[in-house]
Amino acid sequence: MGLRILQSFVCSVPMLWCLSMLLLLLYTASQRTALAATRLGENETDHFALLSIKAQITHDPMLITSSWNDSLHFCQWKGVLCGRRHRRVIGLNLQSYNLAGSISPAIGNLSFLRIVSLMNNSFQGEIPHEMGRLFRLRGLDLGINLLEGKIPVNLSHCSNVRFLDLRQNKFIGNLPKELGALSQLVLLNIVSNNLTGVIPASFGNLSSLEFLSARENKLEGNIPGSIGSLKSLIILRLSKNELSGMIPLSIYNLSSLTSFWASFNQFQGSLPQTLGLTLPKIRNLVFSKNQLSGSIPRSIANASRLEILDLQHNKFSPGVAVDFGNLKNLSKLFLSTSGLGTGDVNDLNFISTLVNCSELVELYIGNNGFGGVLPNSIANLSTQLQHLIVGGNQISGNIPADIGNLVSLNTLHMINNKLTGSIPASIGKLHKLQLVAFSRNKLSGEIPLSIGNLTLLTKLWLGENILQGNIPSSLGNCKGLLLLNLRTNNLTGSIPREVFGLSSLSISLDLSQNSLSGPLPLEVGNLRNLGILNISHNKLSGEIPSSLGNCISLQYLYLHNNSLGGAFPQSLESLRAFEDIDLAHNNLSGVIPKFLGSFRVLRNLNLSFNDLEGEVPVHGVFKNASAVSVSRNTCIQVAKMSFG
């Protein structure tokens, strides 16, 4: 394939695949050349330049440059691509070989170079200024390395370059305004560096630009209005910078734009009401974590190709008046924490328009202060829905009985609302659920037995409701459970042994502030990975089982306000991770164990209101009177210090 064909190829194939495909075609062309090549090269300039490049590679674990010697013509060296006509080096492809070292200035002597790809290695140092001499360069990919320093101004001399990828390095300083002279540039990727300063207004001269990604830097100031002149622009990514001001209206008129990512900045102002009409091809619109205000444009309903709409964490005016029914491709809708709730009964009317969005996978509308009743239509959303987040509102009514229709749900988060009624038994149909959060509502009735069908569940929050009845033993089927919170309900009966058989519990088991009775089962010793155990404010009786000493990861133990008796278990001596122990308001007897003074990270110890006796130890935590409470015990002898 001749170079003229390769050059036309650059302009006709979609940009994101151009560079890799061009490398492949160049390689094919070079192979024909290499087969015909003689042993020694016709061009010593290229030969010596390549040897200089090899000399500055200090780590080559895959022995890529082992063929770079005089036993072969340099056109046959691995990673070297030569042109068919002049047998000059036109491509250098050393990507993803785990190479380390620096880039030799001699690379500037490879005057026929079209493509350089050193991507995904560990090259260090600066980009040599000599690279600016590569006037024939079409593509430069130095992404995912450890390069540093400033981006050389004289890269602007590479006037034929189409692709410039410098992502994931350590570049600093300002973006050179001179790069605005690269009128043939199609792709500019500078993601994940430490670049500062403003986006140069001269970038508006990059008339061929289709892809501009500058996210994850420290760029500041306004987006220059000249960016709105880039009529070929398809993808614009500016997230995670320090940009501010208003987004220029001219950008919303870039009709070719498919993705606009501007999240995690400080943008202000409102979105134009015509946005959905002027961006007919938009697929991804991501403006989260800014200070945008005004209303969400109704015209978004016309952006029929929209897949991701992320407006969360802004300051929009209350109300969502968008009809999402025409957005058949919508997969992610993020509206959380944006002040959209009015507290009115009609706040959630827009939910019914989402029923037609058959591709919807994630719906986040939490922390908005939405009022009204949770509509039954929420159970008719896409069966592909994986994450449903409606917590932190003022939503009332029942959880829809048919919530079990959402068979792909992974996360169901309804915490901190005003929901009433019982937890539907159909929740047991949601076999993919990993997180359920219903805490801080007014849910009543019993915990359904069907919850034991959720065998993939890792976190279950049902606390701070008015649930009653027994804890279902079927929870023992949830073998991957890391956290179980049933605190502050009206639960009664004994704690099922099956719950203490969940050795997966590692974060927290909180059953506090209920009316649970009976002894603490021996099976508590199965919780070897548990960090927090809170069964305080119940009606537990009997002794603290010695098997609790098997809970070697326990940091926080709260058993206060029960009717536990017997001595402090000697087996707890092995639990050296304790930071907080509260056993107050029980019927514990015997002496305070001296080993508690050897717990180095123990910060608080409350043994008050028991029947303990003997002398208080004086070491460790006992040296700090404010950290220990032993008051109101039968016959405590305080030595050297006064305890409260």
UniProtKB/TrEMBL annotation:
Topological relation to the membrane, as annotated: Single-pass type I membrane protein
GO molecular function, one term: protein serine/threonine kinase activity
Keywords, comma-separated and alphabetical: ATP-binding, Cell membrane, Glycoprotein, Kinase, Leucine-rich repeat, Membrane, Nucleotide-binding, Receptor, Repeat, Serine/threonine-protein kinase, Signal, Transferase, Transmembrane, Transmembrane helix
Residue span, Leucine-rich repeat-containing N-terminal plant-type domain: 44-82
Annotated signal peptide: 1-30
EC number(s) from the headed UniProt entry: 2.7.11.1
Superkingdom as given in the UniProt entry: Eukaryota
Compartments reported by the entry: Cell membrane
Cross-referenced Pfam families: LRR_1 (PF00560), LRR_8 (PF13855), LRRNT_2 (PF08263)
Segments crossing the lipid bilayer: none
Recorded GO CC terms: plasma membrane
Main localization (coarse): membrane
InterPro entries hit by this protein: Leu-rich_rpt, LRR_dom_sf, LRR_N_plant-typ
Enzyme class: transferase
Stored Gene3D superfamilies: Ribonuclease Inhibitor
Family (UniProt): Belongs to the RLP family.
Name this polypeptide is given: non-specific serine/threonine protein kinase
Source organism of the structure: Actinidia chinensis var. chinensis
